[in-house]
Amino acid sequence: MKVMLTGLSYKTAPVEVRERLAFAESALGEALSNLRSQGGAEEALILSTCNRVEVAIATNGEINLDQVLGIIAQSRGIDAVWLRPYLYTFRDEEAIRHLFRVAASLDSMVLGEPQILGQLKAAYSAAKEHGSLTNFLDSVLTRAFTVAKRVRSETDIGRSAVSVSYAAIELAKQIFGQLSSKKVLLVGAGKMSELAARHLHRAGCEQILVTNRTRARAEEMAALVGGHVIDYDTFHTRLPEMDIVITSSGAPDYLLKKDEMKQVLKKRQNRPIFLIDIAVPRNIDPAVNDIENIYLYDIDDLGREVEENRKARQREADQAELIIDEEIARLLERMKAREVAPTIVSLQHRFEEMGRLEFERVRGKLGPLSPQQEEVLAAYTRGLLNKIAHGPLTEIRRAAAQPEGDRVLTLIRRMFRLEDS
Amino acid sequence: MPDMSLFWLRVAAFLYAAGLVHAFLTVLRRGSRFFPYALGAFHVAVVLHFVSFVEHSVELRHLAANNFYETASLCALIFAVVYLFVEWRYHFAILSIFIFPLVSLLTLIAAMGAPMSSWEDSRVRNAWLITHILLVLVGYAGLLLSAGAAVFYLLQERRLKRKHGSEDFIAMVTPDRLPPLETLDTLITRSMSVGFVAVTLAVVAGSSWASIEYGTRWISEAKIVVSLVTWGFYLLMVFLRISAGWRGRKAAVLSLTVLGFAVITWAAHVGLRPLLAR
């Protein structure tokens, strides 16, 4: 069985190209059946996301890349020649490796992001629905899902936050553990603090308060994150009840200073406070971080956090590549085993045939035999042939797992004249 | 009647113990409704304590502050009176967590100044000692847990404070995933509270055992002094934590300090085993 994968991704093509090649779900069915009827594919899969469009096909015959490209280009109404420079193509082992890497999110823009697996599963279901996954490619994809799961559970690739707003939530969890009972104050209603507040809301934070110089904007934001508005002029008096404060206001001077925060901390019996200052210029005096039990992170701190996490993900990705190597080797071994199956069957047929002919010949010479005698003779022939067959059959199975197995296979086929049968 | 002053002192010690119960409840449950009763008992105890002191002084014809027991008694009485004044003037109820156990224990020790009857049954003696040892072990376990959590707290706190980019040795040996600060802080508090209650009871059991065993000599034993100092630090830690909100790094450091004292106490007690075999 031959496999080929061709396509483009954010690595090779700008968004203007990707968007032109992207497949709507409704267009998938026709393209898949064209690939099978005109492209020589026995099985086909189309994966189309905002970061990549890829086509995988499997067949026992020959694959003509131009033909496949022609079909894809035609179905999207674009010129195949125009598409060519952006494309990459992998065959057989490399194609399977690419599928595994995509599934495990090793080829994603954000390493380890979890969406791609869902998208691949959706593509798989669509292809399955249109009857274009029946045999080998189906099993490769099923394996790819298992590989993705292994990578996720055996490495930490998806663990640490790689966006600024999510990094803030991760830090909050490292301080407080459970966030559901924590009180959050948003000072200023910027885009970034909205994002952080949404994450907090999703993480179970139920008490989110918003304050802003213009009240209308605060109300808008409070509605978005399920919070309440408090007065901008009096928010300082409410600080002692807050566990997490996110500032993103356009104030030119520091809104929160060291002395005030010392008092706030005293009032809350030194229970820790997490301050996230994403404003530029900063809203909180950096010296506040010197106070015990107050943790202040500004936008650069969060940026560095994300950078560290990215590096950590890269290290985990190296680990994941090893898992993929291992899985590829396992799959190839099984493929080889599948390849030798016909040889085994024909060798068995050959021996059975030989046994039958010899039995007939000898029986004719012995004259009439009792059923018991006939049984003994048949058993003798079978036993003899099985013993002779045992050696070559074992060798074939062993050869299947080895890279030089083809030579052994050819030799055995020639020895037993299997080509003729 | 030489025994009368001692009798009043013992009753006072008993009443002060109500304050100890209040302290336990506050430490374990983060609040106690028992305070009014404990304070009432404390008032009565102070009066009786005073009566005992005056009677004893009259008997001696000078101020009863001659030996260790008399000094302890006077000390406890002064603490108690000062506390009552502070409470009356400033309503500083939380101070009771510190004063009640302190006065209670000092008075108990003072009440052991007169030699008590010796053991009626050696089984009681041994059971008593084993109870003391078990309580100490529970106390140590609590302290050890609290100190372990404190180490992790300090590491996690340091990491969060320094943020990324600290590539020193400690950053390298710090495990990647530590429990959240608040979880560790709760663990420190809880194990510390349970440990405190166990250690206090152990000190009470231990000192009363020792006073029966050795008569009045027991207080001069170095290991007993060390235990009492350890207990004092434990009390201070619990008090600071509850009253001043000493949490986080300070609490963690304190808990490690108390563990250090506990180790010294343990070392001082290693020679205890042969006593049991007697």
Model description:
The complex is a heterodimer of chains A (421) and B (278). With 421 residues, chain A is α/β, with parallel strands linked by helices. Helices cover 57% and strands 12% of the residues of chain A. Chain A contains 15 helices and 10 strands. Chain A has a 6-stranded parallel beta sheet with strand order 7-6-5-8-9-10. In chain A, a hairpin with a 3-residue loop joins strand 2 and strand 3. In chain A, helix 2 runs antiparallel to helix 3. Chain A is elongated, with a radius of gyration of 33 Å. The two termini of chain A are 23 Å apart. Chain B has 278 residues and is an all-alpha fold. Chain B is globular. The interface between A and B is medium-sized, with 22 and 19 residues.
Helix and strand pattern of chain B? HHHHHHHHHH
CATH first level of the largest domain in chain A:
Alpha Beta
Strand line-up in the sheet with most strands of chain A: 7-6-5-8-9-10
CATH domain topology of the largest domain in chain A: Beta Polymerase, domain 2
Residue runs with pLDDT of under 50 for 5 or more positions of chain B: none
Range of helix content of chain A: 55-70%
* Helix proportion range of chain B: over 70%
Quickly count the domains of chain B: 2
What is the β-strand count of chain B? 0
Strand content of chain A: 5-15%
> Termini distance of chain B?
37 Å
The most extensive interface, with participating residues per chain, is: A-B, 22 and 19 residues
Rg of chain A, alpha carbons: 33 Å
Mean pLDDT reading of chain B: 80
The number of helical elements of chain B comes to 10
Principal-axis shape of chain B equals globular
